[in-house]
Design a protein that fits this description.
single chain, Hypothetical protein af1432, 2 domains, elongated
Length: 371
Amino acid sequence: MEHSKRLISVFMSAISNCMLYSNNHAVTDELIENTFSKLGVLLKETDHFEIMIIENDLIINKNPAIGIGLQGKNLIKRLKRKGISHIEFSKGITLQELKKLVADISNMEKELKSTPHIKIGIVGLHLGGPAIDRDSGTEKSLSGFTSEQLSKIKEEINSISPFKKLHVTVFEEIVFQFVLMLKNKINILKLLRPAQANNGLDYNHGTNVAVLTLFQAQALGIKEEFHRDIGLAALLHDVGKLFVQKEMHNKKSSPGADESEAMKLHPFYGAQYLANINDLTCLAPIVAFQHHLRYDGRGYPQLKTLNMKQHICSQMTAISDSFDNLRITTRYRKALDIKDALITMKTKDEGLFNPFLIDNFIRSIHLSLSG
């Protein structure tokens, strides 16, 4: 294990040096060659060398790596930002393959892909199966994976209380899957799930909003390094509803004026809760607080002492939230089809959305469907 940890340390040093300088820098070359040498020693003893990330732990050849230090933690953070939780090195690996891997990890805009002797993928944590190679059967494999993840998310959210912190990794995992699916050009409608009209927290609605917001980010050309934070913030945008009085959740009668005003506090409760969670993007409390504000400055919650403008992520989330809500049947109206929902969003309430973003959303949905 000590030899494995030293390998990880040198490997991350090579990545760090490549980020600072280049993959052709003399010190980078030396560190990669040192990594290659240590990896060769390990591969003489076994057929493969495996790195996995499970929650915030580094697993090396099925064994937890204790005391991995700053370099190991940085490797975990770097791979999670890439949406990767599994790397397997096998016998026959070449120095050129390792150099390419180091260069690709150091460049946040570069997608990691498997090579003949380096398998890149994700760990099927809740399926109990092997890692899923992102290069094969993505749509079929990940659709089942997300079903399991949704159950895990539902379980996690049901356990939330003011005194219990949510496990960020559970939500990160499903965001990674959505990012991968959108990158693989899977039709966005295949990722949306039937949501329900209620005053509580609908898990399907949350995932739909995450997918739609990531879809917007991708269409806008926002760098992939920000997709994880954007997806997490959108996924958790309505978490404040859990802190509104329980008797209001799923009420069959129309909410009274007092109850409606109480429900308008859910952005505040959500932001307050999410702001106190370690390792969670700062976008999460911002979006939770702002997703019912409007582009023209109205909406709720209103702060008398501050003229708050929506963050662009909050603007995108508001568009996703509205679109998904229009596709839900309520007591007051039937669910709208996609075309009517888009027309309603574009024409009904001027000032609600950023004009550029709503036009981009409509255009992107049409392109996706026609494609």
